[in-house]
Amino acid sequence: MISFAEKFKVSERKCIATGKVLAKSDLVRFVLGPNSMIFPDPENKLPGRGIWVKADRSAILKAEKSKLFSRAANQSAECLENLADHVEILIANRIIKLIGLSRKSGQCICGYEKVKDWLKKDIAEVLIQSSDGSNREKSRLRTPSDGSFIGWLSSKELGKAFGRENITHCALASGGLTQRIVEDAQRLKGLRIVKDQNSFRKDETSK
Question: Which of helix, strand or coil describes residue 195?
Fold first, then answer.
């Protein structure tokens, strides 16, 4: 089965920590900024030559501790304190922002009954459920057969995208923002310790 990401042309870069060539959607871009500081650039917009690291907490820690950023930059480079945590926050906030934009364009809804209806009508491309929601309740909804599942955002994080305190269930229809959300969510997963969820979806990522 062709994955959601494979439907689109993939651009690749080499990770300085693992040495592997990976899709840019599986990597985090960093740039050398003022005072020789390394800054994460998850939106790939900052000027300068990109330094790429796999979107994985252990890979970022390795690049930091082994001075791989300095080697890649060909000069001494300093990292922000708790760099992996900083990257995690940036990517999570970016996802929340994109979900909010998708909601405003009518491509995202929340609430159990609405999500259930979208799934039944094959409108939903992506099922999103909060990491801290009831497993029993979440198990009543299934990921679209050719879609993706995101389950490592908290109910408060999802709530921010809808201007509410807490959200457990969301669904995304197909569209340009949906692809970006799925890709960013995959990167976030590598930076978070994903709690064990229902067996049918605990290892489920974008298909």
Answer: coil
Whether the Cβ atoms of residue 204 and residue 198 lie closer than 8 Å to each other? no
Show the domain range for 16: 5-86
The answer on 76 and 32 residing in a single domain is yes
The pLDDT averaged over each successive group of 10 residues in the chain (207 residues) is 50 96 95 94 94 97 96 95 96 97 96 97 97 94 94 97 96 93 95 54 37
- 66 and 104 co-located in one domain: no
Amino acid at position 92, single letter: A
- Domain boundary (23, 58, 86) is at 86
Q: How far is CA 78 from CA 41, 71, 167, in A?
A: 15, 12, 38
Give the helix/strand (H/E) hosting 34. none
**3-class DSSP state for residue 39?**
strand
> Looking at the structure, do residues 46 and 105 belong to the same domain, yes or no?
no
Considering the entire predicted model, what is its pTM? 0.85
Residue 73 tokens read as 């930059």
